[in-house]
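Suppose you are handed a protein chain with no further information: no name, no annotation, nothing but its sequence. What can you learn? This example shows the usual starting point.
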Amino acid sequence: MHLVIVESPAKAKTINKYLGPDYKVLASYGHVRDLPPRDGSVRPDEDFAMSWEVDAKASKRLSEIAEAAKASDRIILATDPDREGEAISWHVLDVLQQKRVVKDKPVERVVFNAITRSAVTEAMKAPRQIDMELVKAYLARRALDYLVGFNLSPVLWRKLPGARSAGRVQSVALRLVVDREIEIERFITREYWTVEADMTSAGAPFTARLAIHEGRKLSKFDLGDEAAAAAARQAVISGAFTISAVEKKPARRSPAPPFTTSTLQQEAARKLGFSAQRTMQAAQKLYEGIDIGGETVGLITYMRTDGVQSAPEALQEARQVISGLFGADYVPESARQYRTKARNAQEAHEAIRPTSLARNPGSLRLEGDLGRLYELIWKRMLASQMESARIERTTVDLSTADGRTGLRATGQVILFDGYLKVYEEGRDDPEDEDGGRLPPLREAAVAEVRETRADQHFTEPPPRYSEASLVRKMEELSIGRPSTYASILSVLRDRSYVRMEKNRFIPEDKGRLVTVFLESFFNRYVEYDFTAALEEKLDQVSAGDLDWKALLREFWGDFQGATQEVLQRSTRDVIEALNTTLGPFLFPSPGGRACPKCGTGELSLKPSRFEPFIGCSNYPECRFTRKFGPPSEEGDTPAGDRELGTDPETGQTVFLKSGRFGPFVQLGEEEKPKRASLPKGWSPEAMDLEKGLRLLRLPREVGNHPEDGGVILAGIGRYGPFVQHAGVYANLQGVDEVFEVGVNRAVTLLAEKKAGGRGGRGVAAALRELGPHPVDGAPVRILAGRYGPYVKHGAVNANIPGGEDPETLTLETATALLAARAAKAPTKGGKAKSSRATVSAKPKAAPKAKPAAKPKATPKSKPAAKPKTAAKAVRKSSPKA
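A reasonable first move is to predict its three-dimensional structure. Written in structure tokens, the prediction is:
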């Protein structure tokens, strides 16, 4: 019996059908080991020895693989054909060797670019050994990410309260977003005008733009105001024009190559509105296979690739399909050959393409994300092998007899659509540079002006990054690798360093502050060139041209010194340095940093565990604060601060103020005045005395509970509006209900809450019904939870990732989220014991000494050990790279 080990159970099931009864295919379910999130997992003092810990869920699966390995004659490692796949194979083999189940059995490595019967059977005929150069590149990358995360993040926590963590690549991606925001803020808008005319010649209408005014060619800003534009428009109105030149230039447009990981993510974002994570989830399913006619078949080739080339048989099939669908005119003389610019040839696999172009998207009838993404991949591959489009670009010049006024019209005609019949690459900011279609126009013909208009324009700053444009920029700068882009963007959102508005990245104050801190004290490590150079060196490791330990030694020597230097600085020095760097942004007014309230204090940046803010140095005597950012237009005062009126009960003034956590109302100006935050949906502009007093009076007494006579209260908490009685809280539908809810309604809600389960949780509101689960037919719903929308099926709840839109989430995606959540469910017995392994320069045999040999702690020693362990856990959480 031959044991085949792959990553995914879906892949295992499909491959088992292809190989037959002599093979047993088991899944590792992805990575089985990782560096534990604590100090000492990578030890530079021991030549970068690395301790690996088996995942609790993977322990049982590895035991099953080990039992199967004992009974097998041959072990075949068939994980994915990239660096991560090579690392998974190495990890699995290392664990099997430690369990002493390999012995003298042959161990082989096979790779296939597609999960089809022919691809798998052919791969089995060409086994090889594990590529240790790729494994070393993986080890170097993991060590670098760990060393940066576990040494830089503690510096952030100590010197910049509220910062979550920092990573080697994530921090550079964040800097891109912040730098673009700064560029937008510094942009100076300029006004300019254009003059257009609706013209006719021999009865044919067209539009032309003023190009020559007063005998001089116009540049963009020559018509800088309305007066200049009006004078130019009058010159067009009074002019008599003839067509002085008609120029036609033939052009060809060639198709884009088939998809790489990066270009697939970009196009899916532009054309389908998918996040990078959503794209890769759908692509993974297409790669692993879909049931077609009773057999599971992989529909696309491997989706993590930098390559744009395709196999000869795929090119030949593409030509046949194109000829059959569109005719011989759409097939070029020879197949198009694309070349990748990948720096590492070992990772330059085939492009992402359908395993068979004969599988038309319409015939497969795939639903949801899978159908839309497969159609995109199918069309892109087909178009990449089609004939070029032939275009005729036309430029028409019109001028007056004296040549002092001239117009220009541009347009294009598609003579042969070629690949455009199937697919045209999307653009982030599309512009019609070639104009519309022009009628036939004759040189020296008279052209009449029918209507003119002068239009005002303003220059615009560069747009914020979308997922597509940010991925493209990261690829251009060689920041990270395409397979990591989705996780990098997710980390930035999950840590609240950025937010998405209209599908664009906007840095949060916290993210901006982290970036400024890193630029001030770790500038080298967030430089684009340095990060790109490090990626080049990692590629050299995978190519066998650079020793991975030498790379780590070079990096660690400088990086350790930089972290120690910053740790030795006082927090006050760090904050003052940030005040200086951020001065033009935070304190742009002539008064600089002088406190506008007390006049003697100095404004300064104040980090906090929630959000940074600006405060006075005379605190607590002066309690002036404002939100992080430049002062309002009214001056350096909290934006929106105003008096709402006088409370008739106390005679104190009610203020509307803006603090570091948002707008709030305040009663009086005592040392500790009563305050209430404005609830979500209440704008500061609409606040008045009545609303302010209603908030300050909360919690409100609704009445007495009929069972025990206890008081029922209504209020607004951190999770929204509620009613409360005897420790049981029930959510209300809206803020207004807090002030209107009666006893009967409150009693009903509290009773439902009690019936909802432990902790007093009630039934969450259903946002959407997705349909029956394909396994048991039970309903799958999207519910509104206290932490956001989630998917529910039976007793399983799964969070909806930040990049997913609950309104467009499909049943297929929901079931995948539920399956992943079910696989992660903890066992009743608690955490499984983890096994560890140490990687050093030379692999050693597993030690004979048993781990259980450690002496047991006496009862007296236990109380002393617990606080130390707990303190360490608090200090060292788990930053990701």
